[in-house]
Amino acid sequence: MAKTEGGKRLLPDTEAAKYLGLRVQTVRNWRHLGIGPAYHRLNGRTIRYDEDDLRRYLDSVKVEPDQGRRAG
Predict the structure, then answer these.
(1) Range of the domain at 42
(2) Within a domain: 14
(3) 17: exposed, middle or buried (C-beta count within 10 Å: 0-12, 13-18, 19+)?
(4) Which of 14, 19, 43, 52 has the most other CB atoms within 10 Å of its CB?
(5) pTM for this one?
(6) Do the domain assignments include residue 27?
(7) Rounded Cα gap, residues 37 and 54, in angstroms
(8) How much is the pLDDT for 47?
C-alpha cells in the first residue's frame, strides 16, 4: 500500500477488491467498463484506488430500506 504526500492511502486493485468485499476480477471488469469507484493510473500502467474514494463509492451505492413498510 502506498501513501501520497498528503497521507492518502492508495491501494492496488487486489486490496481495493478486498476492501469492497469483491473478487479482484470484478474490480478489473468494472474499470474496463468505466463503472465502479474512481481510480488513479500511475505511470501509464499502475492502478491505485484511494481509500477515501472507495468509502465514498460504498456510500453512493448504499440502499436504505423503507422502514415504514412491513413484509407480508
Answers:
(1) 2-60
(2) yes
(3) buried
(4) 19
(5) 0.80
(6) yes
(7) 6
(8) 96
